[in-house]
Amino acid sequence: MGRNVGQAPSLQRPLRPLSHRRAGCPPQPERLPHSSQRGFTLLEVLVATVIMAVAIGGLLSALTTSMNNAARLTDRDRAVLLARRQMNELLVMNPVPRGVPLQGVWDPAVTGGRPCGWNATVALFEAPASAPSGWDVLDRVQLEVWCGDGDAKRTFTMEAFRRDSAPAPGPRP
């Protein structure tokens, strides 16, 4: 093999043998393996690991926030369903004592393990001034529902109206 003029000896490559050449193609230098140029450096692997760790940390943070919001909404929905059920019971209860505070606590198995309860009052809302006993009048039912304890205690109020009979003559409550 002859030496090419102007090239350093380390850059010379041997020509491919004739058996490996394509027909009609000029001879090309044989490719040497570039083992030092294959793969990733340690620094590249470390940078990629840090980038992936930051991305996964962000995803886990978003997932945690999402799970907390879902749990909070589940608790709120459960409390609203229990309140509606209790309000329906108060609306169909007969006779209902007017002006007397009513209260109760739900079983923790029903409330998801959280302490929850309710307070209610029924008051005469509207009646004719001289309505005889037995006439239809309108009662207002106020229901306050609470869930949790301490700083985590949440309350909300519901109000509904029901038809009832006029109270017996005498002073109004």
Tell me what the structure shows.
With 173 residues, the chain is an alpha+beta fold. The protein has one domain (42-165): Pantoate--beta-alanine Ligase, Chain: A,domain 2, CATH 3.30.1300.30. It is 29% helix and 23% strand. It is built from one helix and four strands. It has one helix at 42-92; strands at residues 102-105, 116-126, 136-147, 154-165. Strands 1-2-3-4 form a four-stranded antiparallel sheet, with helices on one face. Strand 3 (136-147) and strand 4 form a beta hairpin. The longest helix is centred in the middle third of the chain and has 51 residues, at 42-92. The radius of gyration is 42 Å and the shape is rod-shaped. The N and C termini lie far apart (120 Å). The relative contact order is 0.11. The mean pLDDT is 81.
List keywords for this structure.
single chain, about 170 residues, alpha+beta, Pantoate--beta-alanine Ligase, Chain: A,domain 2, four-stranded antiparallel β-sheet, 1 helix, rod-shaped
